[in-house]
Design brief:
Layout lengths: L1 E10 L2 E9 L5 E5 L5 E7 L5 E3 L7 H6 L7 E2 L5 E2 L3 E4 L2 E4 L8 E2 L12 E7 L2 E10 L10 E10 L3 E10 L3 E2 L3 E2 L2 E2 L13 E3 L4 E5 L5 E7 L11 E2 L1 H4 L4 H5 L5 E5 L6 E5 L6 E6 L3 E5 L22 E6 L14 E2 L5 E9 L1
Length: 346
């Protein structure tokens, strides 16, 4: 196993480093200090050809001026918070409204847009990086000094383990995730409409007109949202279900995961690549880049197109602070926020 550190760029006079993690079985993962971004994941196909399976940029400027969130850690809160405000113990906290009147993915300068401190990890059968960042009290409107840690660990068992921790000195809210954009065809040869996705979920959060949860859920049975036995992503792009149409003909939805089964699988038949996702989180947000073709930037020399990738964001339930029926995202002083997800490449 091997770990290499190299300069990736510079921001406001500070160097930004990239770590390349390699295991003994042909997989390499490149991660950045900026945003804890997963920049590349190189995985062999069924014929042994090694190619990249995530979207990203080859320089820091791309992340600063292109589409945000490629491969980044999202925080303090993943997803949208209605009205860019919430209440704790009778006090209202006003957050930055960076998507119309709502708060999205941590605000204007969320965890995706800061330089994290880094420490390389070398263990028997694994290499990785531990990232740390202190988000000060009041940043983007959130209460409390939040001490956050993100760890990536690549193993010889073909796993990339993602671990999140956080502590606060004041009651606050936390819900972190990684926003990797997967395309298992390798080097973006095809879009992901032909990818087969399997999710053990029978209920999905209903979305309203601002792509915010309404507080209701719907049964997936008989719809293009039923991935329990596996189905192609394309099914949602041609579906006339109002929820598919609402988000631009595809998916941008939180699938609730049962306590007894939280394993998600994504497969590209042509390349033979399979991604298995295991998590301890209550839901996965599936986003299929439904309107990416409208964007003007380039991704590693290619103009983006609709359905170029799929995001599988394992996390707490979106906007849970406004829906007490869902698992709490409140963190108290003296408590530890913990979340774990594992990606297995096959």
């Amino acid at each position: 196993m091997e770990i290499k550190k190299a300069l990736f760029g510079e921001l406001e006079g500070r160097p930004v480093h990239a770590y390349e993690l390699k295991n003994d079985r042909g997989i390499s993962v490149t991660v950045l200090e900026y945003g804890c971004i997963i920049n590349k994941i190189i995985v062999p196909d069924k014929n042994g050809k090694a190619e990249n399976i995530v979207l990203g940029y080859d320089n820091l400027d791309g992340y600063l001026h292109g589409v945000p969130y490629f491969g980044a850690i999202i925080g303090r809160i993943a997803g949208r918070i209605a009205g860019a405000s919430f209440e704790l113990d009778g006090k209202t906290y006003k957050l930055s409204a960076n998507e119309n009147r709502n708060h999205l993915h941590g605000g204007f300068k969320g965890f995706n847009a800061v330089i994290w401190d880094s420490t390389p990890i070398e263990q028997d059968g694994a290499v990785g990086v531990k990232f740390t960042h202190i988000s000060p009290d009041g940043e983007e409107g959130y209460p409390g000094n939040l001490d956050a840690t993100v760890t990536y660990l690549l193993t010889n068992e073909q796993e990339l383990k993602l671990s999140y921790q956080a502590h606060t000195d004041k009651k606050t809210i936390v819900n972190m995730t990684n926003h990797a954009y997967f395309n298992l065809s390798g080097d973006m040869k095809r879009d992901v409409r032909g990818h087969k996705l399997q999710i053990p979920s029978n209920r999905v959060l209903e979305l309203g007109q601002e792509t915010l949860p309404t507080g209701k859920t719907f049964d997936v049975t008989g719809t293009a949202f039923d991935f329990r036995n596996g189905r192609k992503i394309e099914d949602g792009t041609v579906s006339d279900h109002p929820q598919n149409v609402l988000v631009g003909n595809g998916y941008d939805h939180a699938f609730l995961l049962p306590e007894t089964e939280k394993t998600i699988r994504l497969k590209d038949e042509e390349s033979g690549r399979v991604l298995t996702v295991e998590t301890d989180q209550p839901c996965v947000v599936v986003y299929t880049c439904n309107t990416m073709g409208n964007d003007e930037y380039e991704i590693r020399g290619r103009k983006p197109s609709d359905y170029l990738a799929v995001c599988l964001e394992t996390q707490g339930v979106p906007d849970a602070i406004h829906h007490p029926e869902y698992p709490s995202v409140i963190l108290e002083p003296g408590e530890t926020y913990r979340a774990h997800t594992k990606w297995i490449f096959g």
